[in-house]
């Protein structure tokens, strides 16, 4: 059974390597940096990569304390306080 239509297959085969329709061009396979396997990242990309790889984002001890307090009934959730905080946050975003 054939899954793709002939139009989709022919379009994929006729695309030109190294060109994109969104105005961004890729380096060709013959460029020196691609043959070495090296990639030069911008400072923003390096910063985002460091943020993604950081392990200190979650305070595991605090999460366990909150989980235990919820399970034992010591921590009470106030829905109106949460709603007020969300509304205030949205108002700040809309300014």
UniProtKB/TrEMBL annotation:
Keyword Flavoprotein: no
Domain of life according to the entry: Bacteria
Bias kind Polar residues: ranges: 1-18
InterPro entries registered for this protein in UniProt: Anti-sigma-28_factor_FlgM_sf, FlgM, FlgM_C
Stretches the record annotates as Disordered: 1-42
GO biological process per UniProt: bacterial-type flagellum organization; negative regulation of DNA-templated transcription
Pfam families from the UniProt entry: FlgM (PF04316)
Domain spans labelled Anti-sigma-28 factor FlgM C-terminal: 39-87
Entry keywords, A to Z: Bacterial flagellum biogenesis, Cell projection, Cilium, Flagellum, Repressor, Transcription, Transcription regulation
Presence of keyword Kinase: no
Role this protein plays: Responsible for the coupling of flagellin expression to flagellar assembly by preventing expression of the flagellin genes when a component of the middle class of proteins is defective. It negatively regulates flagellar genes by inhibiting the activity of FliA by directly binding to FliA.
Family named by the database record: Belongs to the FlgM family.
Name of this protein: Negative regulator of flagellin synthesis
